[in-house]
Design goal:
The protein has 5 helices and no strands. The chain is mostly helical and about 110 residues long.
């Protein structure tokens, strides 16, 4: 019996081909969109697996802030901040609470 490639590996292979296509035939805006999409996917994976990784949330929010071009992009950025601050630190660890408070300040 032959094993089939996993959906994740198939998606990664398809994405590599898409990036190569954009690099060959796309313009600068298209290539930047591909790079932002890839980073967005990586941050989504990180924050889904580690919701209290506030540094990852900061980086993710910064990415969204830097890619604002339309009103819908403001909503996406706001949504990232709101998801980040919904992860209240589970312990009274000063380091976690400091990062959490800085997230609130940055969001404000």
């Amino acid at each position: 019996m032959t094993s089939r490639p996993s959906p994740l590996s198939q998606a990664q292979e398809l994405y590599k081909k898409f990036v190569q296509f954009e690099k060959t035939h796309g313009d600068r805006h298209g290539i930047e969109g591909v790079v932002v999409g890839k980073k967005r996917f990586q941050y989504e994976e990180t924050v889904r697996n580690e919701p209290f990784a506030y540094d990852a949330w900061f980086d993710y929010a910064r990415l969204e802030e830097s890619s604002i071009e339309a009103p819908a992009d403001h909503d996406r950025c706001r949504e990232v901040y709101e998801r980040a601050i919904s992860n209240v630190p589970p312990a009274p660890d000063k380091r976690l609470w400091r990062r959490y408070i800085f997230l609130w300040l940055k969001y404000a």
